[in-house]
Write a structure and sequence with these properties.
Number of helices: 3
Distance between the termini: 43 Å
Shape: globular
Number of strands: 6
Length: about 120
C-alpha cells in the first residue's frame, strides 16, 4: 500500500521520531509501530482535501506492548487514546510530504512516563 500512496522519496516528519525519508523508511516505522501496539486502531475522524493538500484528523488507540525502534523506552503495558493530524502534500497523486502533529506530552502522561500537570 505504501507504494500506491507515497512517493518513493516521501519526507515524513513525526514528533519524537524526527524526519524519515523514503517510502521504505516509513514502511519500516509503521511495522515497528504495529509491533509496539499490536492492538492498534487508528480511526479517521475527518479528511480535508483540496487537490494538492490533504489533512487527516485521526484517533489513535492501542496498548504499549513492545519496544519501538524510534524509542529507548521499555513497554509500559498501558493503553493510549489520543487525537492528532497529518498534513500531507501531494504531487502526481502521491504523498510527497507528511507532517504529523499530536500532543506528545498527553501520550507520555497516559503511558505513565510523566506526571500530569498539577498532580
Amino acid at each position: 500500500a505504501f507504494e500506491e500512496l507515497y512517493a518513493p522519496n516521501v519526507v515524513y516528519q513525526h514528533p519524537g521520531v524526527g524526519t524519515l525519508e523514503g517510502a521504505q523508511g516509513l514502511a519500516e516505522y509503521v511495522r515497528d509501530l504495529r509491533a509496539q501496539y499490536p492492538d492498534l486502531l487508528i480511526t479517521i475522524e475527518e479528511l480535508i482535501y483540496d487537490g494538492d493538500n490533504l489533512v487527516c484528523h485521526w484517533r489513535f488507540k492501542g496498548t504499549d506492548k513492545g519496544m519501538h525502534a524510534a524509542s529507548e523506552l521499555p513497554p509500559t503495558g498501558k493503553q493510549v487514546d489520543f487525537h492528532g493530524a497529518d498534513v500531507m502534500h501531494l504531487k502526481d497523486g502521491k504523498i510527497v510530504e507528511d507532517y504529523v502533529y499530536f500532543d506528545q506530552m498527553a501520550v507520555m502522561q497516559q503511558l505513565g512516563l510523566v506526571e500530569p500537570f498539577g498532580a
